[in-house]
Design a protein that fits this description.
Elements (H helix, E strand, L loop, with lengths): L10 H15 L3 E2 H8 L3 H13 L5 E6 L2 E6 L12 H14 L5 H13 L7 H8 L17 H13 L1 E7 L8 E13 L2 E9 L7 E8 L3 E10 L21 E7 L4 H5 L7 E5 L5 E7 L2 H9 L5 E5 L1 H20 L7
Antiparallel strand pairs: 1-3, 2-3, 4-5, 4-8, 5-6, 6-7, 9-11, 9-12, 10-11
Helix pairs in contact: 1-3, 2-3, 4-6
C-alpha cells in the first residue's frame, strides 16, 4: 500500500497525487483504499475521479469485484514510441534491487520513482505491475548507511561530471583527526558493500597537477566543497584493474592450495583476470592469481580456516604463520567466559 500523503494537503495536491498514483502504478484501487491513502472521504475521492475524467486528459476504467468498484487509468490508445519494453524495465528493477542497499534513502526513492514512471506508456496496465515486480533479495553483512553522506555523493558526482577540484576533509582509519586534501574526483567504485572515490590528489594552486592517485572511502568523508578550479586529467593508472583486491599496491603473484571441501567454490568463480587452476589428486585445487593487496589476500585466505594454505609469496606465508601463532596464544591465554 503506498504511503499516506499529508492530511493537510490541498484539494489540488490530492487531485495531482490521485492522478499520479493511478497513472504510474497501473494497479486497481477501491474507493476505501484511495480514501485511506489520501486521508479523506470516499465522496471526495469520487469527486476527484470525476474531475480527472472531465479534464479529458485520462480515461478512468472501472471494474466491480464482490460489489466493490475498483478504478485505474487506462493507457493511451495511440502509443508514442517507447524505448523500453516490460522485460527491459524488469532488468532495470533487477539492477536496482542488487545495488539498492548501497544508496542513501533519498536516492533510493528517486531511483524507484524514476523506474516506476518509465512504465506509464506501456500498452497494458498489467504490464506496468509485472514490470515492477521484484524477485530479488540481497543479503548484506556489515552494511553501511549512506543516507548521511547523500550530500557528499551528489557533490562528488557533480564534480566528476563538471571536472571540478574538491576541497575535502577526510578521516583515514589510521588517524584521530581529519585531514584536508584537494582532489580531482574521477569515479565512484562499489566494492564489497561499500562505496569508494577514485581520485587524484592535486597541487593546491594554479592549474591542477596530479600528485598521486587516492582511493577514499565515502563514509570517511567529513566535508566536500567543490571549487571553481577545473581539471583535465586522465583516469588513475588502471594496470591493476581486475586483479585480486581493491587497495592500490604493486601487483604480485600468489599461490594458494584449497582442499576438496572448498575446491568447487574456488573453481566456480573468477578471482583475478590473471589466474590459473591446477587440480590435485586428493580433489583439492591450487589457485595461482595476480593480486594487488597483501592485507586483503591474507584476510581472504584466513577466512577459509584449515581449508586453505598460502604457498607463496614466502614473506606473506611467514606473516600468516605469525598471525596464526598470535591467535593461538590469545585463545590459550584467555579462559572460557573471561569476557562474558
Amino acid at each position: 500500500m503506498p504511503r499516506k500523503i499529508n492530511q493537510e494537503a490541498s484539494p489540488s495536491r490530492k487531485l495531482l497525487g490521485l492522478f499520479s498514483l493511478l497513472l504510474f502504478s497501473g494497479e486497481w484501487y477501491s474507493l476505501p483504499d484511495l480514501a485511506q491513502i489520501f486521508k479523506c472521504s470516499k465522496q471526495t475521492i469520487s469527486r476527484l475521479l470525476e474531475e480527472i475524467e472531465l479534464s479529458h486528459e485520462a480515461k478512468i476504467e472501472r471494474e466491480t469485484r464482490s460489489r466493490t468498484c475498483f478504478y485505474r487509468i487506462c493507457a493511451p490508445k495511440k502509443q508514442p514510441h517507447v524505448s523500453l519494453t516490460p522485460a527491459e524495465i524488469s532488468q532495470l528493477v533487477l539492477c536496482r534491487d542488487l545495488v539498492m542497499h548501497l544508496l542513501p534513502d533519498d536516492l533510493r526513492a528517486s531511483v524507484a520513482r524514476t523506474i516506476r514512471q518509465t512504465t506509464v506508456l506501456l500498452p497494458e496496465p498489467e504490464q506496468r505491475c509485472q514490470a515492477m515486480d521484484s524477485y530479488v533479495q540481497v543479503s548484506v553483512r556489515g552494511q553501511i548507511d549512506y543516507t548521511p553522506f547523500h550530500g557528499f555523493l551528489d557533490a562528488l558526482l557533480q564534480s566528476i561530471r563538471e571536472k571540478y577540484v574538491c576541497e575535502i576533509e577526510y578521516l583515514a582509519a589510521s588517524r584521530a583527526q581529519p585531514k584536508l586534501h584537494e582532489i580531482a574526483p574521477m569515479r565512484i567504485i562499489a566494492y564489497r558493500e561499500a562505496l569508494y572515490v577514485s581520485a587524484w590528489k592535486v597541487t593546491p594552486k594554479g592549474t591542477p597537477e596530479p600528485v598521486h592517485p587516492m582511493l577514499l572511502a565515502l563514509h570517511r568523508f567529513k566535508s566536500v566543497i567543490p571549487t571553481r578550479r577545473t581539471f583535465n586529467l586522465p583516469l588513475p593508472p588502471s594496470e591493476a584493474e581486475g586483479l585480486f583486491g581493491l587497495m592500490p599496491q604493486e601487483p604480485f603473484k600468489a599461490r594458494i592450495r584449497f582442499d576438496r571441501s572448498v575446491a568447487p567454490y574456488i573453481r566456480e568463480r573468477r578471482w583475478s583476470t590473471e589466474q590459473s587452476l591446477t587440480a590435485q589428486e586428493d580433489g583439492g585445487v591450487i589457485l595461482e592469481l595476480a593480486a594487488r593487496s597483501e592485507a586483503e589476500l591474507m584476510s581472504w585466505v584466513l577466512s577459509f580456516g584449515t581449508h586453505a594454505e598460502l604457498i607463496s609469496p614466502q614473506h606473506m606465508r611467514h606473516q600468516l604463520i605469525q598471525s596464526l601463532s598470535g591467535a593461538k596464544e590469545l585463545y590459550q591465554e584467555c579462559e572460557v567466559g573471561a569476557f562474558r
